[in-house]
Amino acid sequence: MTSITLNNGVSIPQIGYGVFQIPPDDAQRMTVAALAAGYRHIDTAAGYQNEEGVGRGVRDSGLPREDVFVTTKLWNADQGYDNALRAFEASRSRLALDYIDLYLIHFPVPQRRLYAETWRALEKLYADGMVRAIGVSNFKFPYLDRLLATADVVPAVHQIEVHPTYQQAELEALTRSHGIEIEAYSPLGRGADLESETITDIATRLDVTAAQVIIKWHLQRGRIVLPKSASVARLAVNLDTDGFELTEADLTAIETLEQGLRTGEDIETFDVPA
Ligand code: A2P
Residues 119, 131: contact at Cβ < 8 Å? Predict the structure, then answer.
């Protein structure tokens, strides 16, 4: 599988398996299945409440630890320097892993004004070798700029919602201008974008599925992509993207599908702890 080299030299598999909404009891089985299907990158979060199952799945897979790239994320209630250090340790012990590959601030929670301080905690975890890379998620304008103004370590990735009907092109350009890689979550628009005629026409022409077309669009545009599926068969299909290429005309046709259709949370109002 193709990998991308992050701004600190760490290599990350370009397709990851996102386990948002995978129930805790299924996380172990699905993680094992994804790794058996060929995934080498699993994306979880404290907020998904399935870290234990993911950790068990990574261990049960029989793969060497260094062959699997594991991301988790700091939950909103745990922002602040000391809280973040404690929350990291709690995530690490739920996953039961010695180190985490990538640790992200899940949401900026701008109302609390704690994300710069929280970032210092992530910088310490990185300096101490507890994590191989650190990054942010959902830091739309102006939060990414504000973070960069005080950060010593430039985030390695920015994980945001990106799919054909919600591309966040300006945020992607701003992010990349700082050498930060984009990780696309809800890359299929939670399944809704698979219905687009533009996508299905390309899929028919290339004799692949609509999901493969959208995933290939992300890959060819240089994003790390985190498709989800509760089906082991579809997980395997989503990884099978090597045997075809989209033309530049296909890529730009997909880019005309932008409609501002956000499916995820509005970060301005989302779950701000008291
Ligand atoms: P399912 O879990 O039944 O496979 P996103 O990654 O953008 O959040 O999209 C996830 C949605 O897309 C889920 O509803 C998932 O359904 C569906 N999905 C994922 N992969 C495929 C695929 N290869 N074919 C059809 N639907 C898919």
Answer: no
